[in-house]
Task: inverse folding
């Protein structure tokens, strides 16, 4: 038996088996390799999807970019296995101020947490890179020689976020030796960031559209309000015109009534003189022995007593006086009405302000009579050049407003004096006063605190316009609960 | 150490000293593996050291020369285990450059548990190169044997000067490899 031959055969068999094993092992290795690659690329795709999905979420959930950037930056670090990153945010709304983050550490390295590392070196780099990026608008690669947290760093990649041709932010990645995988990731980042910029752009446009829409709605509402008020003031103007017509109609009959009343007064005086003389005759005739005379006198005396002649005499004079006063008032009021409605004619005339104020008080008498007392402290002033109708309107407006502010114990004080080359008029009431917040808007057109339909909100703005027209000033001070004082100043000589 | 190294060692013993010697060595060393080696497995480094030590006694040859001799023997065994397409180098220098970057890389692919040394060409001269060797096993003599045999396979024998050595406390070995004029 040749054992050696058998042994050599066995040895050969083992070697063959080993080489087959090696071949299999090699195949296994390659299969393994491609599997690992597949897993790697799958892993990459999952992260890539997550990253892009996060970006998509920015469009849907609409967070603020500043709150959102950390998520994106974390995604990017995870996806590219880059150890450190930072970001800047330059908001559209410049009032918000720019933001620079600290250095962030990849949460996969930092035990699942995002660490914030303060590094003045890194901050310096970020400040340096910002102007470069602003200029180029492109990804910026820079070689560094840094050690952060015991990790050597030799590359900085700064990715700009450009939205509407404006640099909205920068994402900065710090790594060592960019691998081809990281390069691949960078391409994904660039696409993602572009997508982000597009979403930002849409959001910006949407917000702008929304703002414009809101503005238009507000304008529309204001227009409707204005229209309503204009209609109201149109009505007022019509009333004004009507009253001017009526005033004219009333004026004529009033003229002859006044004349007639004057004549009637003269006649009545004559009648009374006659009747009183006749009374003396009657008294004497009653003493007469002539029966005929005596009877006639008795008859007259009876009438005297029956009609209560002394009362008639006294009362007729009284009635006449009263009527004449009434007529004078009617004439005054009608005159005021005429002036009030003549507001559009621009004729300047010599105006006696004291007289105008008196007239306005008369016109407002109805409003003021239940609201307490009116006191005037008036010193004589020279006339000014102006439109008396317009000025009347100003004071009338102030008095009516004051009457609305006051209750029964009201006190309206009017103070007229010369001051600084003009006339100063103060109109003070002790009414409810005006809130500070309303005070600022009080001369604005259509501003009113009265209920809809009660005031037009035009009164004080028109007054303001009129005073300005006269080169004067109008102002107001008020204390809620204590009262309001308007002060007007009108110059004697108008500056051309 | 990979089984391939042991099987080659066994073959060398059988070829040079005969099967009785191998049996004697095994008996002497009383190894954990019992001397049953296959190329795919990995065995304790101590086993090869014990075997080499025992052989030194058996053959009255100092360990260093044995290790270098084994390196020479090992080269063919290793080279032949690779697919022929991977061993097509035009000269010794290109082979030496490929050891670390290609050949041992392949080894590690095949045997993820392999622990190959760092062998790098650090300098090129007119007629040679300087090799940098670094390994926890400090088997620079094995490397020298391997390089000699590789040089012979190209028909260009070399001299090798060991200018610094890990076994003498250095952190690496430097081998100056030069053609014989
Ligand atoms: C001139 C060329 C070569 C040199 C100088 C060289 C050098 C070395 C040395 C010195 C070792 C011992 C381990 C150490 O020192 O840490 C080693 C191990 C090894 N070498 Fe090479 N080698 C070369 C070529 C090859 C070739 C062509 C192969 C082919 C497969 C190869 C495969 C291996 C294997 C499998 C090991 C064992 C590794 C372990 O046990 O973990 N070597 N080589």
Result:
């Amino acid at each position: 038996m040749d054992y050696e031959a058998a042994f050599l055969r066995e040895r050969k068999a083992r070697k063959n088996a080993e080489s087959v094993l090696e071949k299999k092992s090699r195949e296994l290795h390659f299969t393994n390799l491609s599997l690992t690659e597949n897993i790697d690329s799958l892993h990459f795709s999952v992260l890539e999807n997550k990253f892009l999905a996060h970006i998509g979420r920015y469009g849907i959930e609409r967070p603020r970019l500043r709150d959102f950037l950390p998520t994106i930056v974390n995604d990017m670090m995870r996806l590219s296995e880059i150890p450190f990153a930072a970001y800047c945010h330059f908001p559209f709304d410049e009032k918000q101020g720019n933001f620079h983050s600290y250095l962030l550490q990849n949460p996969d390295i930092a035990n699942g947490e995002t660490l914030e590392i303060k590094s003045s070196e890194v901050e310096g780099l970020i400040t340096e890179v910002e102007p470069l990026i602003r200029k180029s608008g492109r990804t910026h690669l820079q070689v560094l020689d840094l050690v952060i947290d015991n990790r050597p760093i030799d590359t900085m990649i700064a990715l700009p976020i450009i939205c509407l041709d404006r640099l909205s932010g920068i994402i900065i990645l710090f790594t060592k030796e960019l691998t081809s995988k990281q390069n691949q990731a960078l391409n994904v980042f660039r696409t993602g960031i572009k997508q982000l910029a597009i979403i930002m752009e849409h959001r910006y446009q949407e917000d702008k559209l929304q703002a414009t829409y809101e503005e238009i709605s507000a304008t529309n509402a204001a227009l409707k309000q204005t229209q309503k008020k204009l209609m109201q003031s149109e009505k007022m103007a019509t009333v004004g015109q009507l009253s001017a017509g009526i005033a004219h109609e009333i004026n004529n009959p009033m003229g002859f009534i006044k004349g007639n009343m004057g004549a009637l007064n003269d006649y009545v005086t004559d009648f009374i003189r006659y009747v009183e003389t006749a009374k003396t005759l009657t008294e004497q005739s009653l003493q007469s022995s002539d029966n005929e005379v005596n009877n006639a006198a008795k008859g007259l005396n009876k009438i005297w007593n029956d009609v209560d002649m002394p009362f008639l005499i006294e009362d007729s004079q009284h009635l006449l006086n009263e009527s004449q006063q009434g007529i004078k008032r009617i004439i005054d009021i009608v005159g005021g009405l005429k002036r009030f409605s003549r507001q559009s004619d621009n004729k300047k005339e010599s105006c006696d302000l004291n007289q105008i104020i008196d007239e306005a008080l008369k016109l407002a008498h109805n409003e003021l009579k239940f609201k307490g007392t009116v006191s005037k402290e008036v010193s004589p002033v020279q006339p000014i050049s102006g439109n008396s109708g317009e000025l009347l309107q100003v004071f009338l407006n102030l008095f009516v407003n004051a009457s609305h502010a006051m209750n029964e114990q009201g006190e309206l004080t009017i103070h007229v004096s010369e001051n600084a080359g003009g006339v100063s008029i103060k109109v003070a009431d002790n009414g409810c006063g005006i809130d500070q917040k309303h005070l600022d808007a009080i001369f604005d057109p259509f501003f009113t605190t009265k209920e809809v339909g009660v005031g037009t909100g035009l009164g004080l703005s028109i007054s303001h316009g009129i005073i300005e027209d006269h080169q004067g000033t109008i102002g107001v001070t008020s204390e809620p609960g204590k009262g309001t004082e308007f002060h007007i100043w009108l110059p004697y000589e108008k500056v051309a | 150490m990979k089984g391939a190294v042991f099987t080659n060692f066994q073959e060398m013993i059988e070829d040079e000293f005969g099967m009785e010697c191998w049996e004697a060595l095994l008996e002497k060393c009383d190894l954990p593996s019992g001397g049953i080696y296959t190329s795919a497995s990995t065995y304790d480094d101590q086993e090869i050291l014990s075997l080499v030590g025992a052989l030194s006694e058996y053959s009255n040859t100092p360990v260093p020369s044995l290790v270098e001799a084994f390196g020479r023997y090992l080269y063919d065994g290793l080279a032949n285990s690779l697919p022929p397409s991977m061993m097509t180098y035009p000269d010794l220098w290109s082979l030496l450059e490929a050891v670390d970057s290609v050949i041992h890389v392949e080894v590690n692919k095949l045997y993820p548990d392999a622990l190959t040394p760092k062998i790098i060409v650090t300098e090129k001269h007119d007629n040679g190169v300087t090799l940098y060797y670094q390994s926890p096993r400090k088997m620079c003599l094995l490397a020298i044997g391997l390089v000699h045999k590789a040089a012979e396979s190209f028909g260009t024998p070399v001299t090798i000067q060991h200018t610094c050595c890990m076994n003498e406390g250095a952190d690496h070995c430097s081998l100056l490899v030069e053609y014989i004029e």
Chain A is about 60% helix and 20% strand. The interface with chain B takes residues 14, 18-19, 21-22, 25-26, 29, 33 of chain A (CB under 8 Å). Chain A has three domains: 62-178, 224-343, 345-496.
